[in-house]
Amino acid sequence: MDCCYTSTYIHIYVEPNFMIVNASGNMITFSELIDELKSNINYNRDVLYALSKNPNLLYKKITELASFTGSRHQVALQLHFPDPNKIKDIDSYGAENISVVIDKFRRKFAVPRENIRRKAIESLGNNIQTQDAYMYEGKEGLRIIKENGRIEILPGSIHLWCKVDQNVKNYVDWLMQNIYSPNSGGIST
After folding, report:
1. What are phi and psi of 185, to 5 degrees?
2. Per-residue pLDDT tens digits for 94-116
3. Per the CB 3.0–4.6 Å rule, which of 27, 99, 101, 171 could disulfide with 78?
4. What domain count does the chain have?
5. Last residue of a domain, which of 56, 75, 94?
6. pTM to 2 decimal places
7. Residues 65 and 40 sit within 8 Å (Cβ to Cβ)
8. What was the pLDDT predicted at 169?
9. Alpha carbons 39 and 21: distance in angstroms, whole number
10. CA–CA separation, 86 and 41 (whole Å)
11. pLDDT tens, residue by residue, 29-78
């Protein structure tokens, strides 16, 4: 295993099929998680292009990379392909249709839903709609409807059914820090 240090707190290890970026500190931010996923995808780009002739094998490899990346941070990271043709668009991996599951059994938010709504408007703009969602059997949830997709926020997971631009990244980083982080009264990992 080769090891090099790019700074005092980020270590990069290169192993066959994976490039692992490990940042010390609290729960990983969404931006860091996606950057790590994209690093793993870029490291495996040749393999992914070779598998692009067989969508089933390509999906298996993508799922493996996402699962590996998420497991390093005690989350389930999933990429979705509602349009089956997008599976061959390797450049879109990690840029849309992403789920991060921290604790699928959690039923209540660590902060009031109104705070989550307010931050959504602040981060994503006034052109969004916020709705209560999944509000049954004592569960909480919010749906943020954007012009080009939606974000579904549950107490233990977030599902991005939209393009992930910098505003979305910033918002999900805030969610990771304020809803899901053990330091915020969120989920212990």
Report:
1. 85, 10
2. 999 999 999 999 999 999 999 99
3. 99
4. 2
5. 75
6. 0.82
7. yes
8. 97
9. 8
10. 15
11. 999 999 999 999 999 999 999 999 999 999 999 999 999 999 999 999 99
